[in-house]
Each structure stands twice: as structure tokens, then as C-alpha cells.
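Internal ticket - ligand job 253, lysine:
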Amino acid sequence: MKMFKTLATAVALCAAVVVQARPLEEIQKSGTIILGSEGQYAPFNFFKGKQLTGYEIEVAEAVVKKMGLKYEWKTVGFDALLTGLAQDRWDLVIASHAITDERSKAVTFTLPHYCSGGIIVSMKPEVAKAADLNGKVVAVQTGTTYLDAVKKVPGVKDVKNFPTDEAARNALASKRVDAWVTDRFVAKEMLAKAPKAGFRTGDMLFVEQVASAVSKGNQGLADAWNKALKEAIADGTVGKISQKYFQEDVTCK
Ligand code: LYS
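stdout (C-alpha cells):
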């Protein structure tokens, strides 16, 4: 009896730990793909009232339509999104994650849906280049490639982490930091929306390709997504969405 109980506990533990990502066939059978995003990163993914929207939200919805599926969105903090794939909380994450070697160890990336990079934003003309960050305090969102990049800039006095990109921006606006590093298109949109706020963009620190991610090795799903994404780029659907949000084409050329 005791042995049986131990065995039963072991089986239950295994079942709890080994969560299997849903393969494409299973998603197709259910008819609905579960998508994960952040919802706090305008103009890529954000809430307009109760409605989740933005460049990559609209791109995802167009891609899913081409895949012949319905979608259901889940939103959580940026930091929890990729781990949620391994826990099978959603089938695919689209939340402005750049393709990096580190992340590629844990997840499988699809083809990129935009090409961009990290840019320096400050309120002083003398803080514009990487070298200008020497002795300065810089704000970034936790878990981002901006954090990794700023850590590598020699002489930075302090890197302050914030749970959202908006909180990092607010730290700059209230002059608690000297600079903020964010995505170049996020900065572009912000400057266009608030030209008198006193923000200025400086140099780009690095470039990156941004893609969605599926659970590590869920290749069937990645392939189906890639095929539909290619079609959506080729037929101009993605280009139209890009023009709407950025007045330019942000796809990778
Ligand atoms: N593209 C950056 C990265 O891959 C930032 C994404 C930030 C989303 N709020 O980490």
C-alpha cells in the first residue's frame, strides 16, 4: 500500500511537471489558438479601453485568420510570457521579443514580424550617444534586450529596472534617471504624440529582429505560422498594418 502510494505520488508529480505544448493538429481540432502578449507596449501591443490592439496584435490576428483558426488572447507581464509557453498557458507569444541566443535555448522563434533596435532617449542634448551614458543612470524594462545592452555600455553608473517600459519612460519624464533605452519605434511614436514633452532621441545602441515564439520544438506550429505570416507580408496585409501604426514599413528587408 505504501509503495503504491509513493508510486501514485511520483506519477502525479510527473504529470504536473511535464506539460506538453499543444501540437498544431490539436490546436486545429479545438479551432482556437491561445495567444499570449503583454498589452503594455504601445504601439506594438496595448489596450485601447478594454480592447487589446497594436501592430503585432493586428498582425497576429491576420496570421491566425490565414491559418484558419480563431484566437483567444491572454495578457501578463512581459517577464512571465516565455515561461508561460513551457507551462502550456498559451500556444504562441507575440510581445516584441527579439530573437536572442539566450531565449532560443528556451523557446522556438518564428520568422520576424519587425526589425528594430534599442535607442537612447533623454531630456538633455548632451545625452545622445553610448559614450554619453558614462556616469549616468539609465532606465530600462526588466527582462529586455535593452537591459542587456545597457549593462554592456562601459561606465554606466546605474541601470534601473522597471516592470513596464512605460514605468521606465515615466522615470525619465520625472527626471529620476538621465536616460531611457527603448525600441526606436516606441520612441518615434512617443515623440510624435508628445512633441513638447522634452524627450529627445539619440543613437541606436543595437539592432534586432523581433518574432513570436512557441514552446521549444513545437515546429509544426511554428511552420504553419511562418507560412501564414509570409502570405500576409506578400499580399500587403502586414504592410497596411505597419503604415497604420508607423507610417512606414517595419518588416525586415
Ligand atoms: N524588443 C525588446 C526585447 O526583446 C523589448 C521588448 C519589450 C516589451 N515590452 O527584449
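Auto-summary: Confidence is low (pLDDT under 50) at residues 11-16. DSSP finds ten helices and eleven strands in the chain.
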